[in-house]
User: Fold this.
Amino acid sequence: MSEPMNRLVTTPAAVGDSASNVASAAEPSAVFSVTDLNVFYGDFHAVKDVGVDVKEHEITAFIGPSGCGKSTVLRCFNRMNDLIETARVEGSVRYHGVDLYGNDVDPVQVRRHIGMVFQKPNPFPKSIYDNIAFGPRIAGFKGNMDDLVESSLDRAALWDEVKDILNQSAFALSGGQQQRLCIARAIATSPDVLLMDEPASALDPIATLRIEELMHELKSDYTIIIVTHNMQQAARVSDRTAFFNVSLNEKGQRTGHLVEFDETGTIFTNPAETATEDYITGRFG
Amino acid sequence: MTTAAIDLSGDPKRKRRERRVRVVFQAAAVFSVLVSAAIVLSLIGKALGFLLEIDLSQLWADGWFPRRGRFDLRTIIWHTLVVSAIAMVVATPLGLGAAMYLSEYASPRSRRILKPTLEMLAGIPSVVLGFFALKFITPNVLTTIFPGTQQSNLLAAGIGVGILIIPLVASVSEDAMRAVPIALREASYGLGAQKWRTSLSVVFPAALSGIVASLILGLSRAIGETMVVAIAAGATGGSLLQVNPLNGGQTMTGAMASLAIGSDQVVGEAGTFDSLFFVGLLLFFMTLALNIASERFVKRFRQRY
Amino acid sequence: MATRTKAPTTTELVQAAISGRKTDVVGTLVALGLLVTIFVSLGVLVTLLADMLIKGWSVFAERGLDFVTSPLSPDPAKAGLSQGIFGSVMLMVFVVVVAFPLGVGAAIYLEEYAHDTRLTRFIVANMRNLAGVPSIVYGLLGFTVFVQLLSGVTNGRTLVSGGLTLAVLVLPIMMITASEALRAVPEALRQASFGVGATKWETIRHQILPVALPAILTGSVLTVARAFGESAPLLLAGAVLSNFFSAPAGTGFATLVTEADYTALPIVVFNWARQPQKEFIAITAAGIVVLLVMLLLINGAAIYIRDRTSRK
Amino acid sequence: MDTRDTGSIGTGNVVHRHHDETRHHFSEILDEIRNGMVEMGSLVVENARRASVALVENRLEMVQGIIDGDKEVNQRYAELERLTFETLARQQPVAKDLRFLVSSTRILYELERTGDLVVNIAYIVNDLHGLPASAQLRSLVERMAAASCDLFATAITALGDLDEVVGRRLDADDDVVDELVEAFYEQIGKEREVIGLEAGIALNRLGRFWERIGDHAVNIGENTVYIVTAEFPGDTHLALRDED
Assistant:
């Protein structure tokens, strides 16, 4: 297995390195610390006063009805919202204590450390190999690319299925395989965090379960945040769940806010808020 | 109580009207097909007549002088290729650059202004560009750079044709680039790629078959473009094979136009006027092949997304 | 990696890794390069328009409306556009009357009635290819079929021949435009209409056409604009290629259309452009300005129609 | 753990190295619950055996240890019940997995009640200050307790292996316990004069407790059969769910 090229944060696998070990002991255990997050699209107040802490090596799930801002919040974690011209983010999103929206922070660099997997599998129209190699290449990876491709595919539980067809188009794969390819592609740049925006919503149930299994395996190496409209999925995979809801503001616009954030077992067996219970029991609205 | 039997046979009047309407539309479709058959037949008949009339060795004669019975295909095909190549050299970078700017860089607002303006270029009739090439590009641009430029020359015609096909190349390849799913761009940004990298390494290759289609289509248009070459390249009777694009020369369409202009007073050897149909048929098949090729590329692109 | 003695904190490591908004030189260059390409294209357009206005300005200044209302003449000081404008307008009437119903009808048949058989696919592919055939080839068709073969009907080199030639030229484009407009109508609308018991024609008339009409009309007007600027096929389809012709005074309208010689605006421009005398440069440019203004009007009409019909 | 169970609970067969299976995380949770129940059952059996020794050998000093031992059982009960409910809420189990989890809540109840019965037996040891000296009575108590404990241990084994055959057999095996209890009641009647009313009542309750432990074992067996086959043997489970 090749050396991770730009990993910053120690994982259990790398505990031998004393330097960052000592360092992390003094750090807060939260990978992300979000306070008073407000997101606007032009005049539209999309997300209001969100505060969450995301812990290392946990799977944190964001659930809630459509329009509740869960994806918007997720996209603040790697500054994908920057790509929308009218978007404006207020409040602080701290990543290992560093303000992601600080003045000298380069969003391109941020995204190299915080990987993302999207709703629909979106492989590049290139070979399987080149899909994985794209990220490392643009980041100037100098090591053995073959090894990196193999280890990334292996970690995404795809190596055995594709090792003989690495030069074929990624479109030859099934939807579930494509999504695992996208996960492998995200892993290949050695991120610390994986953001997953409804990663299984375009997949059939069995492929969905395989992705969920994969997430369980990946969480020993990565911190994972998943947005899902499927609360059963959140129930199955996550350690902590944040429930977002929509409310109408004074202008009659739909604004998302955080209702409850707790351990997933608590959220799904004994939620503190009535709104949460109504949502997860399907008595919403 | 019993239910009365339900009549499901339908209103006969309504049924007759349906049939009539269908026949009308069918007739329109059939007529359209007949037109295409008419084109091919009218070409083939006279083209064959031309081949029977002339001494076939004259197709490889010295120069294109139809009134003297010399029909050297190499001359006009070569000149056509020269003009088309120049046109592509002009249109490819400008068209693709404009397409990528509009698709990837322009804000919605500037796109709303730039795109229709570019389309205006597409609306300029080719006679206008021919005149522009003859009376502006040649005297004001080319003679300044290359003092030996003839008044009618292939280079000016090629540039004029190139300008004419910029909007076509731009609009087809912009469609192809815009059809690349946003998801692919997001995937690229999500991996930490910059905008330029995303545009060049992800969007461009993903849209490649559509871009190739746009270039083939542009080439097809360039080969078939008549008025610009007729005005700016020197469509005055005959011509010898010409290697220097700064000199005038006869292209396939230019040759056709010049025969057409003289159509009521064409005199000369046998087949002089009918050579028009032979060249037309040749042109028809060349552009047909290119259009089919372009269609293939578009189809490949469509299947993907 | 950090040394054992002075270990940087994770926060410091992260800070160092994600900061540094280096100005992206390559990115700026790429963006600039692309911007240049688009402005070169637009610059050509501006140059062209300016050149025409400059060259043709004296004609408008000296002759005014006389330039538009005078007939052709070998004398550039007297030559005018009236016959060209009349010819072009009449040609467009032919295009609209012949190509519009045929093209839209064929599109309706192919999109709504015909099953997806090999034959219909062949027809559609055919039409697409015909749309790409160089326009001068249509001139050959016009010459063979309308000027020669059907001269009993068209009287040879008349507006009828020219109009039919242009109509045939735009027919495939009309059809493709209409097909695309029909295909853009959501399938759900058809199913909803059939679902409440409407027949095919009722569905087309009441559900599909109203939705597709703005796009069909806009596309058709733009197609007409294209035909308006077309000159290559008219070279063969009988337009007069000299700088002088006239019909006897008092010739009736019907005779003008069906029997008399004709020309068209782009043909007039072409004829003038070929003249070696310097005096013709100005009237050619002025003629081009008139041609472009008329094209602008037609395109404006397309925008007007689109706005009006889609507002409903 | 490097080996991963395939599929759902109980199949027990091995073991794909990689990712040929889905939901092994879920399978791991199910295994955790099953193993937890087996361990909890083993604790109960051990405690019951200890109670039997305390009874027969008149070891009053063992009573407190038995009472304390049940605390561990109760704690396991609370943990496993919470885990079972959470799993039901989070994993959307279906088919065999659903039967297993629903049955688990019942089995956990049986285990917990059995643990309580063992504690009750320990209190009776205290109350009686040892058994009356009758060798016959003593021997019956010993055999009755042993049969009951064996039956319960078998039930736990059946559950651990999800062994339908063993689970089905428990009902018949319970007849041995019932016969011994019957004989015990008869012997109490014969020796009523010697024992006295108060001790007689205590001994009666003792018999009933061992009998109930046997019944719980049978219920566990039937639930095991239900998990595997989706049917209760002999359609008897409703009749068996009467009060202690």
